[in-house]
Design a protein that fits this description.
It is built from two helices and 21 strands. With about 290 residues, the protein is mostly beta strands. The radius of gyration is 26 Å and the shape is flat. The termini are far apart.
């Protein structure tokens, strides 16, 4: 008798590169036409794990996945018994500049001496291929995206004022932009000009929200002598505020936390006036106002 044919599985993703928050299709075929189900697997720290079951019709299967983090994902498809697996295929997920409003966060001391500054706390608006920011007049211009990298070149919309703001950097998870900016132009006299060059962060609309449970917040280490209070935190997007207490003080204090894409971290100096334009109002009020 002839030997039984060996079962094979072929599988792939529709795109090998996507941006965080996007979905992508997975499809393939199995040579065993009697097969009714296959399983998509992802490789993690503990080996291969099933993440989706797929019905098989006439040897074909498909599903859609939406990754929740950035990085390079390894996938394969197995048969119902696990005796047959496909070759490994890969998907790269990158963060990108999302549409929405961002608050500029600049700690460089040069920001306060820059003409028409400071830029810290100002609102950057991104809509598709265009970004804008109001500083003196409105600056507006194109956004160029290349994976997680970006360039924004914003020119003054006021014909009587020559100015340009160029921002280059990288988009991080949870709509955090990090990079350098160059803000320059010509004074109204037309005789001289200025250029300011400094690093920046821009805190924008969240892409995937972290858990704001008290049990999660309490995992963050506090300075010596402080402990977390037994009270629910106040959260919005990637910001949180929670009550703390120093030793045996009668009056509690508070901490502001920021989600960095992997964990909650303390946001030092949060109640100085300059941060009121950066931290969402509900969080700033809870942490910094004494009711």
């Amino acid at each position: 008798m002839p030997a039984a044919a060996t079962t094979t599985i072929s599988a792939r993703v529709a795109k090998t590169n996507i941006t965080l928050g996007s979905s992508v299709g997975v499809s393939g075929t199995i040579s065993d036409r009697s097969a009714t189900r296959t399983y998509l697997q992802r490789k993690g720290g503990r080996g291969w794990v099933d993440i989706a079951g797929m019905s098989v019709r006439n040897g074909a299967f498909s599903t859609t996945i939406t990754p929740t983090g950035v990085g390079i994902y390894s996938f394969r498809v197995r048969s119902r018994s696990g005796a047959t697996v496909s070759s490994t295929f890969y998907l790269k997920v990158v963060a990108t500049v999302a549409d929405g409003t961002y608050r500029l966060y600049i700690t460089d001391s040069r920001d306060h001496s820059c003409p028409y500054g400071p830029l810290d706390g100002r609102t950057l608006t991104v809509r598709g291929a265009t970004a804008s920011l109001k500083v003196g007049a409105t600056l507006s211009g194109p956004v160029t995206r290349s994976g997680s990298n970006f360039t924004m070149s914003l020119d003054s919309t006021d014909p009587t004022w020559v100015a340009n703001l160029t921002m280059t950097g990288t988009a991080k998870p949870n709509a955090l932009l990090v990079g350098r900016l160059e803000f320059g132009g010509v004074y109204p006299s037309g005789q001289t000009g200025w250029v300011c060059d400094m690093p920046f962060e821009a805190l924008g609309p969240q892409v995937s929200g972290p858990s704001c449970a008290r049990s999660v917040i309490e995992r963050v280490a506090l300075p010596a002598g402080y402990r977390w209070e037994d009270a629910a935190p106040v959260c919005t997007g990637t910001w949180a505020a929670a009550r703390t207490r120093y030793r045996s003080d009668e009056v509690p204090s508070s901490e502001v936390l920021r989600w960095n894409g992997k964990a909650w971290i303390l946001y030092p100096g949060q109640c100085t006036p300059r941060f009121e334009a950066v931290i969402p109002a509900v969080v700033y009020r809870y942490a910094c106002w004494q009711d």
